[in-house]
Structures are given as structure tokens and as C-alpha cells.
Write a structure and sequence with these properties.
wza like fold, 3-stranded antiparallel sheet, 2 domains, 5 helices, elongated, Outer membrane lipoprotein wza fold like, 25% helix
Length: 235
């Protein structure tokens, strides 16, 4: 009888330990929460997925913020000033206290430094971190005689040939030696045009023709029937 009671108590204790033992995910979550309670948080990029959708925050330190980008601004220990904002078409966004801030043309670290300086008038020793949550401003447009013309995101350094490849490459009737790139000037107002030749780049070592694309570039690949060479008459 005593042996049976001891065995039953043993089963109860084992079962209780199994119920109280946290799973790996739960234990990891608690550990991360505790680690962030006492010291200043180490600001990092967001997890790879939120709500099943990939975030576009994988950018380099040299990334330049553009209009319509979504930024997460974290002011340590100040939830009222910590906001997720979208850069307006005028290149600015608004924050409490300091109001409008120009974001376009700056890197996240440059913008964080500027916000820190402005907040020092109102907050003691502000610590500001900025993450790029969505990249909406870096796009190129590939039109004309390519397999998949359209708008494409530009999230890393991309050359002209790479841009054409992203659009599926040339069609059989493409005038590949008469590619035109339409580009905004440095002040964003004047439009520039640059021509490039595929054969010059690939066969003749014309590396300069394989220029690095910029946000807002429009690549146009005309058809051979549209191109008029010297000595020819347009049909």
C-alpha cells in the first residue's frame, strides 16, 4: 500500500513539473523582456515579418530617405515622442514639440542627430533612433521594349544593365544600342537625358555607359522601327 502511494505521489510531482516548465519560445520571450527593462535598449531593425508581410527595412547606413518612406522614430523612455511616420511629398514629417522636420536627402543617422539636437531644448539627454520601416521612394521605371515594363523598387546599388535584367531583358525588336535614361537633376526640377549602348558596354568596354541608377530614373528602350539613324528617312 505504501509503495502504491509513493508511486502515485511521484506521478503527481512529475506532472506538475511538466505543467510548470515553460516552453522554449515562452522562456526566450521572458528573457528578452527582462533584458530590456533595466538598461537602455539596443535599437535594432524590426523582425523579418509582421502580420505575415515582409518589411522593407533592410537598408544600408548610406541609405538616403525619400518621400513616402515610412520611418519608425524611437525616443528612449518617451512614448509621446516616439512615432511611426510617413515622409510627405514635400519631404517633411511632423513630430510633437519640434513640428515639421525635413527628412528627404538625409540618412537615418543624420536625421536622428538632427532630431536629437532639436529635442534638447525640451527633453533632457534625448536618445533617438530611426529605423526605415518601408522603402517607398526608391523606384525606377523601365519602359518600352523590355519583357516586363513597369515600376521596380530600387533598394540597393543597381546598374543600367541590372535594371534592364530586372525587367526581363530586351525584346527581339529592342533598339538595345539606343537606350535612354530620363533623370531628375540635383535640384529635383530639371530633367536630364542620358543615352547608352548595350554593345558599347558589353563588347567595347564602355563601363561608364553602365551607369548606376538613381531613384526616379526612367529607362526607355525604343524599338528598332522608332530609331532613325543618320542617312535614313523615317517611315
Amino acid at each position: 500500500m505504501r509503495g502504491f502511494i509513493a508511486l502515485a505521489i511521484g506521478f503527481i510531482l512529475v506532472g506538475s513539473m511538466a505543467v510548470l516548465q515553460p516552453s522554449g519560445a515562452f522562456a526566450q520571450m521572458n528573457a528578452s523582456e527582462i533584458a530590456g527593462k533595466d538598461g537602455a535598449p539596443a535599437f535594432t531593425t524590426a523582425p523579418a515579418h509582421t502580420g505575415g508581410h515582409a518589411l522593407s527595412n533592410i537598408v544600408t547606413d548610406a541609405y538616403t530617405i525619400g518621400a513616402e518612406d515610412v520611418l519608425e522614430i524611437t525616443v528612449w523612455r518617451n512614448t509621446d515622442l516616439s512615432k511611426t511616420v510617413q515622409v510627405r511629398p514635400d519631404g517633411k514629417f511632423s513630430l510633437p514639440v519640434i513640428r515639421d522636420v525635413v527628412a528627404v536627402g538625409k540618412t537615418p543617422s543624420q536625421l536622428a542627430d538632427e532630431i536629437t539636437r532639436k529635442l534638447k531644448e525640451y527633453v533632457q539627454n534625448p536618445v533617438v533612433a530611426i529605423s526605415v520601416r518601408e522603402v517607398n521612394s526608391y523606384n525606377i521605371f523601365v519602359l518600352g521594349e523590355v519583357v516586363r515594363p513597369g515600376k521596380y523598387p530600387l533598394k540597393s546599388k543597381t546598374t543600367l544593365l541590372q535594371g534592364i535584367t530586372i525587367a526581363g531583358g530586351f525584346t527581339p525588336v529592342a533598339a538595345r544600342n539606343q537606350v535612354v535614361i530620363f533623370r531628375f537633376g540635383e535640384n529635383g526640377s530639371t530633367m536630364q537625358t542620358v543615352t547608352s549602348s548595350y554593345d558599347d558596354i558589353v563588347l567595347r568596354g564602355g563601363i561608364t555607359g553602365n551607369l548606376e541608377l538613381r531613384a526616379g530614373d526612367t529607362i526607355v528602350v525604343p524599338s528598332e522601327s522608332m530609331v532613325v539613324f543618320p542617312g535614313q528617312q523615317q517611315q
